[in-house]
Amino acid sequence: MKRLRRLAVVSVLAFIAFIGSKQASAQLVVFDPNNYAQNVLTAARALQQINNQIVSLQNQAQMLINQAKNLATLPFSSLLQLEQSIKRTQQLLAQAQRIAYDIQQIDRAFATTYAPASSSFSDQALVANAQARWQNAMAGLQDAMRTQATVVGNLDTNRTQMSALVTSSQGATGALQASQAGNQLLALHAQQLADLTAVVAAHGRAQNLESAQHAAAQDQGREQLHRFLTRGTGYQPTMVRMFH
After folding, report:
1. Helix (H, G, I), strand (E, B) or coil at 100
2. Cα–Cα distance between 197 and 185 in angstroms, integer?
3. I need a surface site. Which of 78, 144, 186, 223 has the fewest CB within 10 A?
4. Contacts of 184 by beta carbon, 8 Å cutoff, 6+ apart
5. Of residues 47 and 74, which shows the higher confidence score?
6. Residue 244 has pLDDT above 60, yes or no
């Protein structure tokens, strides 16, 4: 019985000690509204800062994308075709026959073939000069027609290049592509002006050679008429028996 009493007392004391410890720990857990509000406000500010950083990173990424677009080169280039067209025109002008686009050659021709006819020239020399002038005029006309044919042949190529450049310009994704498309359109315009200049030069050369031929022929005709009418050196009438 004593043992049972002792065991019961110990059990009661242990239970009282357990209850007391629970009450003590429960008294330590206290809710502070001010502290809770401050913690919520701090968390909200931290979340806003994170959102701001995300937006900033998105803006930076978009800026990098835009910079990449602005630095992207135009995928289409017509410079090679334009250079080839200009080269063909230049080669055609360089192939001009006889009197070409050379100042020294022109001066020599007008000092000899197109020189004013005088008594020092023989009849054979006058005839040879007249034939050379006619050949020069024909060569100038042929060269002008060849130049015109070449320029007309370039029109279809120019039309194709212009259409492609306009399409590339409208579909440009950045400033560099738009600028490159604009530069190539200007190059195409310059090539067309070069073709037009070549046609004008060739046509003008042909006209000038023909005009020079007419002027020299008139001067030579006067000299030949003078020789025909000059006694002693001109035409001498003789008796001709037509029937036996």
Report:
1. coil
2. 18
3. 186
4. 74, 77, 78, 79, 82, 165
5. 47
6. no
Return the SS3 of 112.
coil
- Look at 118 and 240; give whichever has higher pLDDT: 118
**Arithmetic mean of pLDDT, 94-115:** 86
Residue from 203, 193, 220, 202 nearest 131 by CA: 220
Q: Which amino acid type is present at position 185?
A: L
Alpha helices in the chain (DSSP H): 2-28, 33-71, 79-94, 103-111, 123-170, 175-229
Per-residue HEC secondary structure of 132-173 comes to HHHHHHHHHHHHHHHHHHHHHHHHHHHHHHHHHHHHHHHCCC
135-163: string of b/e by CB count within 10 Å (b at 16+)? Answer: bbbbbbbebbebbeebbeebeebbeebbe
Give tens-digit pLDDT for 111-123.
888 888 888 888 8
DSSP secondary structure code for residue 116 in this structure: P
Q: Among 175, 172, 6, 197, which Cα is nearest to 86's?
A: 197
